[in-house]
Amino acid sequence: MDRSFKGSWCFLLVFLSLSFGISLKTAERKALENFEQLKIEMIELDKKHLEKLEHFGRFLPRADIEVSYTLSKKQSFAFNFPSFPPREFVFQRESYPKFTLQILQEIYNPSSIEEYEIKKITEKSYKYLVEEKKQQILYKVREAYVKALMAKAAVEIHEKNIQSIKAHLEDVKELYREGVVAYKDILETNVKLYEAREKLASAKADYKKALNYLSYLIGEKVNEVEELTDYKEISYEEIEQTFSRVEKKPLLLYLNQQITVAEKSIDLARSYFFPRLILSAFFQRTEESDLFPKDRYAVSLALHWNLFSGFRRFRSLEISRLIYRQAIERYKETRRRTLLELKTVLEDIKAVKVKIKLAEEQLKSAKEHLRIAKEKYKAGLGTNREILDAQSYLTTAERTLKMNRYELILKVFKLNKVVGYEAF
After folding, report:
1. 377, 391, 372, 367: which is closest to 199 by C-alpha?
2. What sign does the dihedral 114-116-120-125 (CA atoms) show?
3. Which of 53, 47, 55 is nearest to 112 (CA)?
4. Helix crossing, 110-177 with 36-56: angle to 10°?
5. Angle 285-287-292 (CA atoms, 0-180°, nearest 5)?
6. Using CA atoms, how far apart are residues 199 and 396, in angstroms rounded to an integer?
7. For the chain, first and last CA: distance in Å?
8. Any residues with CB less than 8 A from the CB of 169 and at least 6 apart, and which?
9. Nearest Cα residue to 272 out of 144, 128, 109
10. Which stretches of 287-395 are assigned E, i.e. beta strand?
């Protein structure tokens, strides 16, 4: 008994874990944590940060130490002075150690300053690009989630249709036993039941494929999706307010920063025409010779100015100006395209809302049509085919209304994707 009870309990736990679906919020969170494309972008952002720090290191002094031990041919000469013994003077020993310390500090280098500013702006701008990527991934997840809900709804509608056909089949059989209807009505209803089962099998396959794609996006297995409960209706006025805030779109913010980067690139190209000022300090201790001091040091301030380099600096300046113009045009084109997408989504939302109203009216008509067809059939005034057609019409109306409501939610999600942030 205990073993069977434990087995039943384990089965119940497995069943419950498979039955409860994943929520949209959970799917979004897991996608942002697991999706490989976003991980690549986050790594790239870390690279931009490190590149900025690497360029900042150029403003700090550079210190080099060299310790060596040299073997060479001895260099010397001898002097013979009257009344003094001969004496040898060594210029270079056969072996000697040497220690060198050199410190360099750029006092003024406009190129390094401009390069660092470019790296700072690039890192900041890339954060906007990562945010744009997040919105694209969130839209993919939301689109996949809603399409999974659509497929799930189709399965439920087909299952409901099958139950209705089965109930009608029992009524037809009862009427046939009473001699009210012909046997062909039973055959017609069975054929309709087979068709409904085929559609249900296809709907289940579509639902499974939708869940598989959602699993791919979030990086975990998904067996079920939960119904959306926190969706709120939005007005046209709220939507139209996004037109005045279109510049908040992360992609446009990124492209605007790229214009600033292009401006800084012009300044960088100009900086190559200016001189550099470098402070250096040098200390060396060596046993190389007895004639010269063992300790040597020097401090120097150097001005380095490249006066001619084959017109390369002029060409670089021209190219940076073209890049600046290109960045401006890219921003303008993207902004115009974003406004067009906003207008398109707004028109789509209006159209879907109209379709929802029409579908609601269609559903009321389909229910009334089926009620009348059943009454006529029971009274002997109608045919079984009319009931089956009315049932199909009702199924189509229910599915149309359900899909249009999900389509409206999907359009709102697309609106968030177009504006690039959670506007609604």
Report:
1. 391
2. positive
3. 55
4. 170
5. 80
6. 12
7. 55
8. 186, 189, 190, 193
9. 109
10. 295-304
* Strand-pair partners of 2: none
Q: Residue with structure tokens 């609601």? A: 360
359 vs 39, 350, 352, 401, 409, CA distance in Å?
Answer: 43, 14, 10, 5, 16
Q: Are 374 and 388 in contact (CB under 8 A)?
A: no
Q: Tens digit of pLDDT for each residue in 161-207?
A: 999 889 888 888 888 888 877 888 888 889 989 999 999 999 999 99
Q: Is the pTM of this model over 0.85?
A: no
Residue 307 φ/ψ, nearest 5 degrees: -90, -30
pLDDT in tens, 325-355: 999 999 999 999 999 998 998 899 999 999 9
Distance CA(140)–CA(423), nearest Å, equals 17
Alpha-carbon span 363 to 396, nearest angstrom: 9
Cβ atoms of 360 and 352 closer than 8 Å: no
Residues 6+ apart with CB under 8 A from 234: 412, 424
**CA angle in degrees (0–180, nearest 5) for 97-98-100:** 160
Categorise residue 412: left if φ over 0, alpha if ψ from -120 to 50, beta otherwise: alpha
- The alpha carbon of residue 77 and the mean position of all alpha carbons in its chain are separated, in whole angstroms, by 77
